[in-house]
Amino acid sequence: MAKTSSSNPRKAAPRGTSGSAPAKSTRAKRSAERRHDILAAALEEFSGHGFEAARLEDVARRAGVAKGTIYLYFADKETLFQELIRWQLTPVVGAFEHATQADVPLRVIADQMIEMFVREIYGTRRKDVIRLIISEGPRFPKLAEFYYHEVLSRMIEAFRSILRRAVARGELKSDVFVKFPQLLVSPGLVAILWNGLFDRFEPLDPRALMRAHFDIILNDGRAA
Amino acid sequence: MAKTSSSNPRKAAPRGTSGSAPAKSTRAKRSAERRHDILAAALEEFSGHGFEAARLEDVARRAGVAKGTIYLYFADKETLFQELIRWQLTPVVGAFEHATQADVPLRVIADQMIEMFVREIYGTRRKDVIRLIISEGPRFPKLAEFYYHEVLSRMIEAFRSILRRAVARGELKSDVFVKFPQLLVSPGLVAILWNGLFDRFEPLDPRALMRAHFDIILNDGRAA
Amino acid sequence: MAKTSSSNPRKAAPRGTSGSAPAKSTRAKRSAERRHDILAAALEEFSGHGFEAARLEDVARRAGVAKGTIYLYFADKETLFQELIRWQLTPVVGAFEHATQADVPLRVIADQMIEMFVREIYGTRRKDVIRLIISEGPRFPKLAEFYYHEVLSRMIEAFRSILRRAVARGELKSDVFVKFPQLLVSPGLVAILWNGLFDRFEPLDPRALMRAHFDIILNDGRAA
Amino acid sequence: MAKTSSSNPRKAAPRGTSGSAPAKSTRAKRSAERRHDILAAALEEFSGHGFEAARLEDVARRAGVAKGTIYLYFADKETLFQELIRWQLTPVVGAFEHATQADVPLRVIADQMIEMFVREIYGTRRKDVIRLIISEGPRFPKLAEFYYHEVLSRMIEAFRSILRRAVARGELKSDVFVKFPQLLVSPGLVAILWNGLFDRFEPLDPRALMRAHFDIILNDGRAA
DNA sequence: GATGAATGAGGGTTCATTCAT
DNA sequence: TATGAATGAACCCTCATTCAT
User: Fold this and answer.
1) How do the domains of chain B map onto residue ranges?
2) B125 interfaces chain A, CB cutoff of 8 Å
């Protein structure tokens, strides 16, 4: 009953060019790469098949490691899954919070948000991560909890601060969005879900959808 | 070596209002009841665990039948799942189409839609059926196809006819909704998903959310 | 509760001219027909799939009866199987014994045997019955026992009496066949087995095979 | 919804003489042993119960492995069955072909054949393998095909070359056996089938049977 | 650390048999 | 008698997890 021999290697994969980190022991670097490879492989497999149907053997093969190796880095399938979500979403939250601090007109922010969403979420595997949270969240209370506390509530707070500034500035006549910030992001959600389910029947342009939505709610006459 | 998988009766489901036929033979009635019991049990189990993780043994136990009995009514697990979706959603589409034919002001229709949604979807197991389609749809092309053709496209068409009338009447200045009817229903979707994932952290009143949304897009000054 | 209005029409006329049986109560006649139908259906299914893989549901459907009806006539699947063998083989033994009593030259008898074999065994479902005994016999001791006592030993005895007469008459110089009558029938067996296994690769004419065999062992110069 | 059934090593079977390689890694050796154990266990179970009725759990228990282990070596039950046949029969074909190349009198060859048959087939489990092919072949076209191409046609060819030499030498007056080599082996077949079905009622000495047969067809006066 | 062979519980599906109608 | 819906034991196969090397 080997305890996890721990000294769990650092997160954060070396992204892009391989070893830019200057002074990491080869051991530690290899370890971090392994962990990254496994997470990346898991992303593909969980995205493609869902949690239950994804097979750790396929994750291992895709990562180029043996099945047992996965258990050196992650306690079990469920932990791997949760770490995968964390690994993908944590970076964007920071970027998002940072991007919303600039004091620019609401419409400009909206355009930035749209581009950011399309570039960082819709155009990447993160789209599938969102879908995974929606699909598997109800069966993984801890996952939903992590997502709510570490991602969603921070993003909502960022939104609210933007919105409050916009109301103060008179750009928004109403404060409904402060109360229901979900209304701001719902088109993004719809775009993601539609894409996975119905794009083959009727494609949906996420940018156009979100622009139309902001035109309406910002109510500036462009769409009226 | 494979055998032709045996025949399955698949008697007509008790769509909508129950049996109006006054004199059903006991056999046929029992059969319809069994089918109904199995579908109801499957709804609970699939909702609670998802398609893969739901166990037919639990469905059987919950329905009060033996495991093998399920196979008298449904060819396999997947068929049971699809029939379940069909059984739950087909009736509401008709009701919805009928409800949207009245020639009344858009705001009245909107209020009716909200009430209908809360009563027929959000307040029932149908909410879970929607969630199931979102979760499992990507892995069940036929399911997504059925849902798109038999449910979604019909509902979208109904929406569009309402919206076109509203534009013609001058109630709507823009025709974006005719182009993106998804924007109309996105709050309902958000409400369902939020409910399953985050209600325990921060409850969300679906009626309030949807009303806020319609206030904004109908733009009549109440919320502006 | 409409009962099936029944009056189930009789199946398949009882071979050759229709009703030659003079005075059977309708009940008894119907019952015998049912039994016959089930046996005939079982012959097809067991021949085609073997004992284990044959499904009683298919037997019932083919016989035009309900699954439960089979159990009114036969105790279980195994009994049905054994009765089937008995039903098919009992008649031929008598015919065979009768045919071998004529006091004619051995070669004439041989030719008659060949024709009888081709007509009554190889050209009919009885060929499959033989195969079934070979395939399933080791797992059904009672079946092998029945076959040995009721069929084989009687046929062997008949053969031996022919052979003894032939030896006495000087038609056969040796009495090996009296000791090993199996050598007489082995080509028939080979023909049956070859037919089921390899005919598609290399057809085998049973009549030619058997004639060649008798030419050799009767050693009369035709083939020498 | 189907997954690609995973890979199967299928290391080379220990054909004929065991491992001549002196230094096998323990891993590889254990693997070959396991495969052999499973095949041997499968031989017992399939022989005793037939393909359908044999249970893989019993094979596993007999081989001393877990149920799942079988699937590390064989894709499924059917593959295990076919590999079993191949494993048993391939070696004898080569041995047989080799044995028939000596240019010795026909009667000598015949005696050698008889001894070889009794020693290598009748006295071993290969007898049961032959029975399995006969029993299951009609339901496993691929099995019959393998057997015909890899075993039977090669043996027939070997027989024919012997026979042609014998005809040329004047040892055989007729060439019927060149046309129907089945007639040469039919007593061996009869011996095998008789053994499985009727030996308990009336034992049959395979050697005596085959000698009697060859005496007759070689027609040299010993038996006349 | 890394491997991958081995494990064995678990679940979908089949089908002989029963029994209420 | 006849039916066929219902039963539930049985069995093949999968795959997360372990552990000797």
Assistant:
1) 28-74, 81-224
2) no
